[in-house]
Amino acid sequence: xxxxxxxxxxxxxxxxxxxxxxxxxxxxxxxxxxxxxxxxxxxxxxxxxxxxxxxxxxxxxxxxxxxxxxxxxxxxxxxxxxxxxxxxxxxxxxxxxxxxxxxxxxxxxxxxxxxxxxxxxxxxxx
Length: 126
Hints:
The protein has helices spanning 3-114, 121-125. It is an all-alpha fold. The protein has a domain at 3-86. The N and C termini lie far apart (175 Å). The mean pLDDT is 90.
């Protein structure tokens, strides 16, 4: 065997070892990158779940606030209706009181007309 052939065989073996080393190195790096990407994706999924949970909580809070507002509006409407009813009752009672007062005045006037001791304009003229 000639020395140049031996040198070419050694160079070929060294080149093959370098190529295999580069392939192994690239695979290890891509494997580490894939694992880092997996971890990052898992973190993002966790954050997405947290954000989704917060959004659901806010939606529930908004629905509760809307329900509270509707309840307050219903109570206000009921209070307004009660106030209107009480105003009508008050006006009716005032009218009744005025009617009773007018009757009382009529009775007093009639009593004054009947009572001989009360000085009335009609008696003064007679």
